[in-house]
Amino acid sequence: MATKASRSAARLMMAPAVILLLGWMLVPLTMTVWFSFRTYLPLRGGDQGWTGFDNYVRFVTSSSFWPAVTTTLIILGSVLVITIVLGVLLAILLDQPMWGQGVVRILVIAPFFVMPTVSALVWKNIFMDPTNGLFSHLWRLFGAEPVSWLSDAAIPSIVMIVSWQWLPFATLILLTAIQSLDSEQLEAAEMDGASPLSRFAYITLPHLGRAITIVVLIQTIFLLAIFAEIFVTTGGAFGTRTLSYLIFQRVLESQNIGLGSAGGVYAIILANIVALFLMRIVGKNLDN
Amino acid sequence: MGQISLNQVTKSFGDVQVIPPLDLDINEGEFVVFVGPSGCGKSTLLRLIAGLEDTTSGNIAIDDKDATALPPAKRGLAMVFQSYALYPHMSVRKNIAFPMKMAGIDEASQKAKIEAAASALNLTDYLDRKPGQLSGGQRQRVAIGRAIVREPAAFLFDEPLSNLDAALRVGMRLEIMELHEKLKTTMIYVTHDQVEAMTMADKIVVLQAGVIEQVGSPLELYHKPRNRFVAGFIGSPKMNLIDGPEAQKHGAATIGVRPEHLSVSKTEGLWEGTVGVAEHLGSDTFIHVHNTGLVDMMTVRITGDIEVRHGDKIYLTPDSTQIHKFDAQGLRQE
Amino acid sequence: MARAVTTQRKAINTTFAWIIGLLIFFPILWTILTSFKTEAQAISDPPIFLFFDWTTENYSTVMERSNYGRFLWNSIIIAGGSTILGIMIAIPAAWSMAFVPSRRTKDILLWMLSTKMLPAVGVLYPIYLLFIQLGLLDNVYGLTFILMLINLPIIVWMLYTYFREIPAEILEAARMDGAGLKSEILYVLTPMAIPGIASTLLLNFILAWNEAFWTLNLTAAQAAPLTAFIASYSSPEGLFYAKLSAASTMAIAPILIMGWFSQKQLVRGLTFGAVK
Predict the structure, then answer these.
(1) DSSP annotation of A194
(2) Per-residue pLDDT reduced to its tens digit, A172-183
């Protein structure tokens, strides 16, 4: 649907974006892969040559690997369950007729716009601090011993902070999906004698299926990479070291670039597996 | 100015050839209508002339200069689109001024031309409105105004009336015809509506599957359709086409009789049938006749009214001077 | 939805929704309130909700002590610069994909998206190394460039979905009216896409403003934006809740306001058009 002239103009105009992203992808990726096959300790002797797959083996056999995997999966799974379940309920609630709907929506969405370092710090100090935090006041009010949240219950605390940040995202997308449901479908089901519960189970929920999948995939990609929340609150201590935090520590803290890069390659492969599913959904959507 | 000729033009999208080699000459000042069923390539042909699509091979010349490789902006043509394609963020004034702004015409002459176009098209009161605040007919006039100020070698219209309701369509049709009378500029008009084609054109180009079936004046097409396709396409209601023994009596594979060339009697006639639906328009009556043994259904048009009921027996007689004969290939026989 | 609901039912919905809404918003509200307390009142037990001695002292302290203006300025430069740069690169690309689609357009779009999925930690060291080599470490422009690259796929993608809603006939009309490519994009496409471009700008400004991996790892004293400045509060001395709250409020307030304006577009931007 176009002329040769416009097609060549199109190629030209696409070039900067394509070249930049190609560079952004290929240059660091190649370097990471290259480093991952070398013993490279910038502070302790520099590049000490080729080691084959040693780094890959060492990364997965190190004592911190499996705990990191477990932590990552626990945080990921918990946050996904919490945000999706609460998100669906909240979306349905917000879809009901009420006064001040716009304002409630704004209140619910707000946490998503708070920068991660701020929300981590505010939760860490103002809420979860064992002596001055609001929770400790609350616990004492009921005569209970205040909890040292970020050391004694570190993973649940982080799950809570991250869920608070991502619940708005899930709610907003699910709400949008609910609102796109043709109300005549629900009315037809009502005429057919379906109860509110079966209307939800047979019509609303299947309609939300795609949106839920998208929320799961997008959140997974972002949650696998959460950084600031851990960096600010526990610094990876108390069992909160996720896979990406482990890689970060290997690279920047212990400056073992080879090992960290091997971990990085694992992370990239993992993210790509998730991304592949997301791409398929998005790609299908492009066809319509 | 405004003479366009297409020489062996073809167009393919990928492997699909939508326009096989095609020759066409459009003379200066002519009102040419491209007509055909949807998907026949008429819009593609217009877009090739406009330069919005490349030709796959062949040449397009505008005023004897080769324009095949020229971008649309340099061809000196103006186009009115089906959706009007007005710039929604600009006022009517700015919409009309846009081609002149692109051409670098000074503000004073722009203003004069806008005023002139606006008064010719009854848009003077709406110059400062946005397209969104106008009715369909007004939008159409703005689109035409934008085309006029360009003083093009030819106007191209791509189904410009199909988004208007029936009443407005007739009015706009007249306005476009009057505009043509006044400007005497070449106009190429694409439509799938054969009534528009018949009423507006100096010359009709009937297309099917990218092939020109016939080029001629409306009455030539009506009286001497070159083949079965044109015979069936031009005229409303459609021509009755009869195959088989009845056609062989006339030495043809197919004969065609227009509904208005059949006379009706309740007592006697050449062909016998029963009345199906009768559409009474007051001025005319269309009768659908079944069970003639010739075709499934035959349409008859009678001037004035006639008292017939569903199921009545009826006799039809064709006007023997108005029978069209076609051979086995569907081509006209004289 | 076109159905009457009893007032009672509506009242129940309203109460319920407001309670939950306020609960979710509470941490932000509490932070804002705390920022106006004295440090002593900020940690008082039992906590004081509203009836404290309102003061703006924390704000002036934060501004004076920590060179807050510089961090704020860095945030603005990095978020604004990366967004504007991204838009300038993305508009022509999105035009190409929306109006001159080819068989590869879909693949290119998906590929661009896949670069967005690249885990930052996987390429941390190479970028770190390149930044050292190029002298870009702790440099505002280096960070601006990185954030532009990170958000470029989203910008291209959002613009693409907006552009696709513009009828191609209007651009063709411009071509017929004698407009060249530059005029077509400048005078016709861009003004028509202003709402879409604005929401793209807004969302990407927000994303860049809140970005907290590269901003923490590639900056030190010079180029640190607000994310890094706030993170520096994580190991403070003495009483500081009120000041932390004041600093936090200042860092999130502009974004909260922008975010509220862009909530509708947010969905489209973050799901790459898969949910509308």
Answers:
(1) -
(2) 889 888 888 877
Would you kindly state where each structural domain of chain B is located, as residue ranges?
4-230, 237-333
User: How many angstroms separate the first and last alpha carbons of chain C?
Assistant: 19
Contact across the interface for B53 and A1, Cβ inside 8 Å:
yes
Instruction: Yes or no: say if B9 and B59 are a contact pair by the CB < 8 Å rule.
Output: yes
Residue of A nearest to C1 (CA): A183
Give, in degrees to the nearest 5, the angle at Cα A55 between A50 and A60.
165
Is A218 within a domain? yes
* Position A7 in a domain: no
Domain range spanning residue A238? 49-287
Architecture of domain B237-333: Beta Barrel (2.40)
DSSP annotation string for B228-242: HHHHHHSSSSPPEEE
DSSP string, A41-91: ETTTTEEEEE-TTHHHHHHHHSTTHHHHHHHHHHHHHHHHHHHHHHHHHHH
Band of residue C2 on the pLDDT scale cut at 50, 70, 90: very low
On whether any CB of chain C is under 8 Å from the CB of B163, the answer is no
Q: How far is Cα of residue A48 from the mean position of the Cα atoms in its chain?
A: 36
Given this model, what pLDDT does residue B45 score? 93
* pLDDT for residue C3: 56
**Cross-chain residue pair B85–C170, CB shorter than 8 Å:** yes
How many C-beta neighbours within 10 Å does residue A118 have? 30
Tokens found for residue C63? 């501004």
Q: What is the mean pLDDT of chain A?
A: 85
Say how far apart CA B308 and CA B202 lie, in whole Å: 39
SS3 content of chain C, % helix, strand, coil (to 5): 75, 0, 25
| pLDDT cut 70: percent of chain C above it | 94
Contacts B52 to C, Cβ<8 Å: 172, 175-176
Place of tokens 């020489």: B7
A280 in contact with C at a CB cutoff of 8 Å?
Answer: no
- CA triple C183-C186-C191, angle to 5 deg: 130
Q: Is B51 an 8 Å CB contact of chain A?
A: yes
Mean pLDDT to the nearest integer, C253-276: 75
- Is A183 among the domain residues? yes
CATH superfamily label, B4-230: P-loop containing nucleotide triphosphate hydrolases (3.40.50.300)
| Residue whose entry in the numeric block shows the structure tokens 């002036």 | C60
Question: Would A21 be classed as within a structural domain?
Answer: no
Looking at chain C, which residue has its C-alpha nearest residue B146?
Answer: C177
CB neighbours of A198 closer than 8 A, spacing ≥ 6? Answer: A189
pLDDT digits (tens, 9 = 90+) for A7-25: 888 889 999 999 999 999 8
Cα R_g (chain A), whole angstroms: 24
Count the neighbouring beta carbons within 10 Å of the beta carbon of residue A150: 25
A4 to chain B: which residues are within 8 Å by CB? 54
Please, are residues A160 and A193 in contact by the beta-carbon 8 Å criterion? no
Cβ atoms of A222 and A165 within 8 Å: the answer is no
User: What's the one-letter identity of residue C230?
Assistant: I
Q: For A71-114, write each residue's pLDDT tens digit.
A: 988 999 999 999 999 999 999 898 888 888 888 888 998 898 89
Domains of chain C, by residue range, sit at: 7-59, 66-270
Q: What is the DSSP letter of B191?
A: E
Q: Do B82 and C169 touch (CB under 8 A)?
A: yes
Q: Decide: B302 and B285 in contact? Cβ < 8 Å.
A: yes
- What CATH class is the domain C66-270? mainly alpha
Choose among B70, B52, A12: nearest CA to C170.
Answer: B52
Structural Rg of chain B based on CA atoms = 24
Q: Which of B75, B125, B134 is nearest to B99 (CA)?
A: B75
Q: Which amino acid is at A183?
A: S
The 10 Å Cβ neighbour count of residue A212 is 18
The H or E element containing residue C92 is: helix C68-99
CATH number for the domain spanning A143: value is 1.10.3720.10
